[in-house]
Amino acid sequence: MDTHSRSFAKALSWRATGTIDTMIISLVVTGSVKLAAAIGATEVVTKSLLYYLHERAWLKIPYGRKTAFLAPSAADRPD
Other C-beta atoms within 10 Å of 8: how many? Predict the structure, then answer.
């Protein structure tokens, strides 16, 4: 299992990759560096917020979850 700091670093690197991709596509489509940068800056905020909301929504959905099996403790076992 990854540590929280590793997961956070991976999330940041993925978001940076996605934003650079969006900015390059925006530059190709619009031909404007200024507009491409504005689109990239907007995208990083909106997609981060949407991702957070998406994750929080999925916490309420039981689909695909496995219930953890806990072995009985010594106190729960009959003598």
Answer: 11
pTM: 0.68
The CA-CA-CA angle for residues 59, 45, 8, to 5°, reads 55
Contact 26/39 with Cβ under 8 angstroms? Answer: yes
| Helix locations, 1-79, DSSP H | 4-30, 33-59
Q: How far is CA 3 from CA 10, 17, 67, in A?
A: 11, 21, 22
Reading the block at residue 77, the tokens are: 């076992």
**What is the tens place of the pLDDT at every residue in 34-53?**
999 999 999 999 998 998 89
SS3 21: helix
Distance CA 63, CA 52 (A): 19
